[in-house]
Specification:
With 197 residues, the chain is mainly α. The protein contains 7 helices and 2 strands, in the order αααααββαα. The protein has a two-stranded antiparallel sheet. Strand 1 and strand 2 form a beta hairpin. It is globular. The model has no long low-confidence stretch (mean pLDDT 83).
Length: 197
């Protein structure tokens, strides 16, 4: 029964992740408003298929996947039973999810505030996952690379701790680590609001 629940939970997570990326497009920016109509072009370009990936949404999904996988690992160790007093989610897990949610919300607020400017621009098309999340209109952006790097490193450490340690609770990061994650997210949002995107 325990093995069945583990396989079911893992398969559910993988299917939802695949659908999120390839079917639902929830990791992409909202479609940009159409620019001011222009006279018909006798040689029209192919229409934009998909908007670019959003760094804040991809980061939020990254941490959601890490914490979900950690939950499945710990529940497998516990035999899918939670006794009184058992704590699976650490404070770090909740804080990181909060940072991801806050970053996404603030990023969407910046996007909404810039909709007027977007009306004058040609909507952007997606290039690739890395190019979309690591670049702005001027090319690679240091604030984006910083956020990507720390999210990758801390995410791998978080998951490895869940797999290797004997405790049946998600790991707690040092306050300075959490501050670094928060500062990276804040730097990205501020840069985006200032026009760096």
């Amino acid at each position: 029964m325990n093995t069945f629940l583990t396989i079911l939970a893992t398969a559910t997570g993988v299917v939802l992740l695949i659908l999120s990326i390839f079917k639902w497009n929830i990791l992409r920016d909202d479609p940009a408003p159409s620019p001011t109509p222009e006279p018909p072009n006798p040689n029209p370009e192919p229409p934009n298929q998909k908007p670019p990936f959003s760094l804040s949404r991809v980061q939020m999904m990254w941490w959601l996947a890490i914490i979900y996988a950690s939950f499945v690992i710990i529940m497998s160790k516990l035999g899918w039973r939670i006794d009184e007093g058992t704590i699976v989610f650490s404070n770090t897990a909740l804080i990181i999810l909060g940072i991801g949610t806050g970053t996404t919300a603030m990023s969407q607020a910046v996007d909404s505030a810039q909709k007027g400017k977007a009306l004058k621009l040609k909507p952007e098309a997606s290039k690739s996952l890395f190019s979309d999340v690591a670049s702005n209109s001027n090319g690679l952006a240091i604030t984006r690379l910083q956020q990507i790097l720390f999210s990758l490193v801390f995410g791998i450490i978080f998951l490895a701790e869940c797999i290797l340690r004997a405790k049946n609770i998600m790991p707690d990061f040092d306050d300075s680590w959490l501050a670094l994650i928060g500062i990276s997210a804040g730097g990205y949002v501020v840069s985006k609001g200032a026009g760096g995107l």
